[in-house]
Amino acid sequence: MKCPAGQDGEEVIPVINNLLDTVPFDLIVYTKDWHLEDHISFVENVTQRPLTRKCKVCSFLDLSFLCSP
Fold it and tell me: Is the pTM of this model over 0.70?
């Protein structure tokens, strides 16, 4: 399975399944995060807005934009 974010998303499945099997939750809620294809949260779109000079593109980063998103 390929995670669109490129972060090996399938690795969390066994962890989540273990929690569901071992923790007596009162309520379980599933959600799905959705963004347009050009959303800045996708690393492929990081060049859509100018970054400050101190920013270096890498995984799991904090970005400083020259303008508000």
Answer: no
